[in-house]
């Protein structure tokens, strides 16, 4: 009896949370997949017709937006790594006693609503704003130069919004490195570059990988930044999905598009995770 | 998130060779400047947000500096619907944090402590939930609600928020559980404690830092969420939704004030819990 | 005006199309019973006087109205509502629940399809795609014009004759607005008079357009010399081509869902499609608003009752109460859009005469502003949206929505 209870207890502990996830995460995905194969419209209703053409139609019409989203996601993620790594490195190794203070400062944006942050960033980027205004007044910028409503603005907004998600896991990974290992490499006559490339970098890679997962997915599927900061040529797939759902009520096409987006992102991520082992990634991501 | 709260164990720093040390410190200067630049960049828009909460604007728009005032702090709750939206956000965040923390903690313990059939699948689902694009979660929930003809509103938002936070809590707690010595619990059992007592007096206090940081994370995720809420909210409006919509007619300074206050509260809370965490370790 | 549905031409129009939609809807309803499909929201039948009577028969007020409206459409202290409650004893819960027409439609459609309450008795929806959908789907209660004496007496001619809801069967305007061109005189050194100037390569990267496909389409068609209200599918393509060329030449800086007003004030864009009220409230000396000589558009945010309203009797009473000039004037003062009650102008003039100082100046500006009380000449230039049936909608969207999406 006691043994039975022992065997059951992990299941009992998983049950409530697991059930919640099953009903409100897994089942909706099934529903969405089912809807993505329907045909119809809001007035006549949607019927299951296994209409795979929703996918081909989606790709045909919006394939470029999908690719653009992945492309922007890639650039912003790389920008995040480039910006975050040196800062995380410095805090982890040179931060001294005030390490957590520095880290805390880098995480401060978390306490401001994402939407507000984006709107504030927009205010910074306007043609006569605090960044470009002075430059323009001194004649340092061509008259029609502008940042707002361009791809650069969108990517900078994405980078700004998701940078803390990259700093954190990289910092955690670097922080775990025993400084004595680095010392040892110096003692073995490694140059600083060699020590970095062959000791620090490999040891911190899991953090970078976790950071990539934490940033790439939300960045590639975001629509707030492209709506607020972008122009006509910077529309991302998230905006299309939202419009198809809400403005056009074309649930089938919208579902097909979101399913494609998820499939593309998840296949990449899972391949990635396989190479690393899911648990490692999860752990790094959770920290 | 967790790291700010759980102070990491200080790295033992044995005295390095003197000659090298000087070199290291010198190149530290460039990086230090760099780090401060990044911090400044991150703070710039926040500073602007705070500043414009003090702007003495007289039109419905709030983007040109017209002088300093405390008016908006006095009239913080004048916009009834904005206030309602803020309460919705806060109450949803609190409720979802409580539910999520309870459900997620159990999942985390089970995953960290036991080997059982289905563990792989559970991990997979958690991982998928963490890495799933928000818009897909929102869209799929909407697909389900639409297919079932369920009206959307406060409760569907709450359901969604619990859903996307569970995995984060579970993973945070699991990380803590994995690091624990199971012998402590066994000792408690040997001393005659029942499973409930053991859990309450031994397991829970030991994993508490993990639970707390998971809870904080859940709260932060919920109060900030825009995308999933957008898809599941029906006619219920939360703070981020109201703010986004208000850009249509002009965002009132009260929004900046509320943003500032939430920011301040978050900072204070994080500092307190970091202090307490530091004292405990 | 007698019962609105008494107009035989109108009734016939409603009969045939609704009837057809009704049949389709019934089929869809049957199909909905089979598992795994999204049920059709197919429309109701005919709106006859009998149906109107049917809807209203035996209904009495319950003394409480739930009202869903857009942000910025009621004084912060809700004084208009308070006044109504004081005079009638009917309490009102007012919520800024509507931020975007499409969003709102998406939100209320499931409960309305299931014949459930949406939690509101009165709502304000812009004439446009979603309004037409609400009508086609039969989600709105037909108005009993016997209960709208103030409307009959005080509403403007424009408010009574609207192609998208002939005879005001389902809706009466709450506030209207003009869509024209706003421009910043700091940057634009010539007077803006023509819609063609939005398409001038001289302003490359400095023009703002609206992303809403109806607003955008209207301007494209007007620029192509087409009256949008009477447009055909071929006209849409012509209008679309004009807009597409404008975009591909890099003239358009951004398609605004919102926020064009700060962009034009700050000088990010120099001239942009704009709503009259936004420019009026901005009251910046640099930003001017003009209805282009080829024409602008007038739109209306309309009050209507969802068919599942819990207290339609008091809701329609509130609707009518708002049409009395003295009740409407404070709202107009606050909202700064075009009121459907011309009598408000006199009320505000009287108020201005009695006021002093800054208040007086504000009221006088309001009472004489063509943005609040358009002149007859302006009215003559104003066009209306083309109501789109559900069958036409996807084709229309394919032409115009894709423009702002960069496709």
CATH class of the largest domain in chain C: Alpha Beta
The shape of chain A is: globular
Beta-strand proportion of chain C: 5-15%
Strand proportion of chain A: under 5%
Tally of alpha and pi helices of chain C:
17
Q: Averaging pLDDT over every residue of chain C, what do you get?
A: 86
* CATH class membership of the largest domain in chain A: Mainly Alpha
Q: Which fold does the CATH topology of the largest domain in chain C refer to?
A: D-Maltodextrin-Binding Protein, domain 2
The radius of gyration computed from the alpha-carbon positions of chain C, rounded to a whole number of angstroms, is 22 Å
- Largest sheet of chain A, order of strands side by side? 1-2
Coarse structural class of chain C: alpha/beta
DSSP E strands of chain A, number = 2
Output the CATH homologous superfamily of the largest domain in chain A: MetI-like
Tell me the number of structural domains of chain A: 2
Main beta sheet strand tally, sense and closure of chain A: 2 strands, antiparallel
How many individual helices of chain A? 12
What kind of assembly state do the chains in view correspond to?
heterotrimer
Largest sheet of chain C: 10 strands, mixed
The assigned CATH architecture of the largest domain in chain C is: 3-Layer(aba) Sandwich
Please trace the helix and strand order of chain C, writing H or E for each element.
HHEHEHEHHHEEHHEHEHEEHHHHHEH
Instruction: Summarize the helix and strand pattern of chain A as letters.
Output: HEEHHHHHHHHHHH
Please explain how this structure is put together.
The complex is a heterotrimer of chains A (287), B (281) and C (407). Chain A is built from 12 helices and 2 strands. Chain A is an all-alpha fold. In chain A, a hairpin with a 3-residue loop joins strand 1 and strand 2. In chain A, helix 2 crosses helix 6. The longest helix of chain A has 42 residues. Chain A is globular and about 75 Å long. Chain B has a domain of 172 residues: MetI-like fold (Orthogonal Bundle). With 407 residues, chain C is α/β, with parallel strands linked by helices. Chain C folds into 2 domains: 244 residues, D-Maltodextrin-Binding Protein, domain 2 (3-Layer(aba) Sandwich); 122 residues, D-Maltodextrin-Binding Protein, domain 2. In chain C, 44% of the residues lie in helices and 14% in strands. Chain C has 17 helices and 10 strands. In chain C, strands 1, 2, 3, 4, 5, 6, 7, 8, 9 and 10 form a 10-stranded mixed sheet that branches. The longest helix of chain C has 26 residues. The radius of gyration of chain C is 22 Å and the shape is globular. The chains are: A mainly alpha (287), B mainly alpha (281), C alpha/beta (407). Chains in contact: A-B, A-C, B-C. Chains A and B meet through helix 1, helix 2, helix 3, helix 4 and helix 6 of A and helix 1, helix 2, helix 4, helix 5 and helix 6 of B.
């Amino acid at each position: 009896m006691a043994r039975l209870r022992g065997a059951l207890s992990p299941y009992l502990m998983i049950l409530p949370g697991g059930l919640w996830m099953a009903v409100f995460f897994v089942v909706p995905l099934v529903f969405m997949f089912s809807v993505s194969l329907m045909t119809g419209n809001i007035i006549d209703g949607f019927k299951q017709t296994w209409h795979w053409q929703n996918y081909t139609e989606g790709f045909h019409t919006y394939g470029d937006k999908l690719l653009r989203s992945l492309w922007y996601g890639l650039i912003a993620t790389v920008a995040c790594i480039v910006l975050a790594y040196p800062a995380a490195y410095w805090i982890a190794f040179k931060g001294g006693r005030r390490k957590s203070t520095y880290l805390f400062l880098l995480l401060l944006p978390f306490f401001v609503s994402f939407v507000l942050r984006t709107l504030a960033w927009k205010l910074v980027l306007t043609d006569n704003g605090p960044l470009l205004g002075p430059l323009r007044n001194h004649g340092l910028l061509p008259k029609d130069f502008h940042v707002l409503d361009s791809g650069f603005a969108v990517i900078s907004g994405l980078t700004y919004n998701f940078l803390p998600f990259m700093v954190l896991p990289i910092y955690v990974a670097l922080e775990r490195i025993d400084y004595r290992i680095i010392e040892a490499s110096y003692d073995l006559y490694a140059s600083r570059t060699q020590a970095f490339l062959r000791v620090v970098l490999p040891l911190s890679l899991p953090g970078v990988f976790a950071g990539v997962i934490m940033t790439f997915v939300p960045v590639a599927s975001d629509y707030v930044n492209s709506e607020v900061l972008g122009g006509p040529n910077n529309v991302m797939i998230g905006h299309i999905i939202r419009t198809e759902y809400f403005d056009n009520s074309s649930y089938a096409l919208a579902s097909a598009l979101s399913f494609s987006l998820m499939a593309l992102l998840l296949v990449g991520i899972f391949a990635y995770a396989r190479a690393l082992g899911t648990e490692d990634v999860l752990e790094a991501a959770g920290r | 998130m967790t790291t700010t709260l759980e102070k990491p164990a200080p790295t033992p720093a044995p005295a390095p060779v003197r000659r090298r040390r000087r070199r290291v410190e010198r190149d530290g200067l460039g990086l230090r400047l760099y780090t401060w630049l990044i911090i400044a960049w991150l703070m710039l828009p926040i500073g602007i947000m705070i500043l414009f909460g003090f702007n003495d604007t007289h039109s419905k728009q709030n983007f040109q500096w017209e002088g300093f005032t405390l008016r908006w702090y006095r009239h913080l709750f004048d916009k009834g619907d904005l206030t309602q939206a803020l309460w919705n956000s806060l109450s949803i965040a609190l409720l979802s944090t409580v539910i999520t923390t309870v459900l997620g903690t159990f999942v985390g313990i089970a995953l960290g402590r036991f080997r059982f059939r289905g563990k792989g699948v559970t991990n997979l689902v958690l991982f998928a939930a963490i890495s799933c694009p928000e818009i897909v979660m929102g869209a799929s929930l909407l697909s389900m609600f639409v297919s079932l003809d369920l009206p959307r509103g406060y409760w569907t938002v709450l359901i969604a928020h619990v859903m996307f936070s569970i995995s984060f809590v579970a993973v945070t707690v699991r990380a803590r559980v994995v690091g624990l010595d199971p012998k402590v619990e066994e000792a408690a059992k040997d001393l005659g404690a029942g499973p409930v007592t053991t859990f309450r007096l031994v397991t829970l206090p030991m994993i508490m830092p993990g639970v707390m940081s998971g809870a904080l994370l859940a709260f932060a995720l919920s109060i900030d969420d825009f995308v999933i809420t957008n898809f599941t909210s029906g006619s219920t409006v939360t703070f981020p939704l109201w703010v986004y919509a208000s850009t249509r007619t002009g965002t009132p300074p009260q929004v900046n004030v509320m943003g500032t206050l939430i920011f301040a509260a978050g900072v204070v809370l994080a500092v307190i819990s970091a202090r307490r965490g530091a004292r405990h370790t | 005006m007698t019962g609105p549905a008494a107009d035989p031409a109108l009734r016939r129009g409603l009969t045939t199309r609704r009837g057809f939609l009704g049949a389709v809807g019934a089929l869809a309803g049957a199909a909905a019973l089979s598992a795994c499909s999204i049920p059709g929201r197919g429309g109701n039948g005919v709106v006859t006087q009998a149906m109107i009577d049917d809807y209203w028969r035996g209904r009495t007020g319950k003394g409480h109205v739930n009202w869903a409206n857009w942000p910025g459409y009621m004084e912060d202290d809700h004084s208009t509502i308070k006044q109504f409650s004081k005079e009638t004893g009917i309490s009102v819960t007012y919520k800024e629940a509507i931020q975007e027409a499409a969003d709102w439609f998406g939100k209320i459609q499931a409960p309305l399809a299931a014949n459930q309450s949406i939690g509101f008795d009165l709502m304000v929806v812009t004439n446009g795609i979603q309004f037409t959908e609400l009508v086609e789907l039969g989600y709105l209660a037909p108005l009993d014009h016997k209960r709208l004496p103030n409307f009959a007496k005080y509403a403007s001619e424009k408010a009574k004759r609207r192609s998208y809801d002939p005879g005001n069967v389902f809706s009466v305007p709450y506030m209207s607005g003009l869509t024209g061109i706003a421009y910043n005189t700091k940057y634009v050194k010539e007077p803006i008079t023509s819609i063609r100037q939005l398409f001038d390569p001289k302003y490359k990267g400095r023009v703002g357009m609206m992303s809403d496909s109806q607003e955008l389409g209207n301007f494209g068609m007007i620029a192509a010399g087409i009256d949008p209200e009477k447009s055909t599918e071929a006209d849409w393509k012509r209008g679309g081509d004009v807009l597409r060329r404008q975009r591909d030449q890099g003239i358009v800086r951004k398609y605004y869902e919102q926020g064009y007003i700060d962009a034009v004030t700050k000088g990010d864009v120099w001239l942009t499609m704009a709503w009259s009220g936004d420019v009026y409230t901005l009251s910046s000396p640099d930003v001017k608003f003009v209805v282009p000589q080829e024409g602008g558009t007038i739109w209306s945010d309309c009050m209507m009752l969802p068919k599942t309203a819990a207290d339609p009797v008091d809701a329609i009473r509130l609707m009518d109460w708002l049409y009395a000039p003295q009740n409407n004037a404070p709202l107009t003062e606050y909202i700064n859009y075009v009121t459907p009650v011309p009598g408000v102008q006199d009320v505000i003039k009287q108020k201005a005469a009695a006021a002093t100082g800054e208040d007086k100046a504000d009221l006088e500006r309001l009472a004489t502003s063509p943005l609040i009380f358009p002149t007859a000449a302006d009215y003559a230039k104003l066009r209306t949206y083309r109501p789109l049936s559900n069958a036409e909608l996807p084709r229309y969207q394919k032409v115009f929505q894709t423009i702002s999406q960069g496709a």
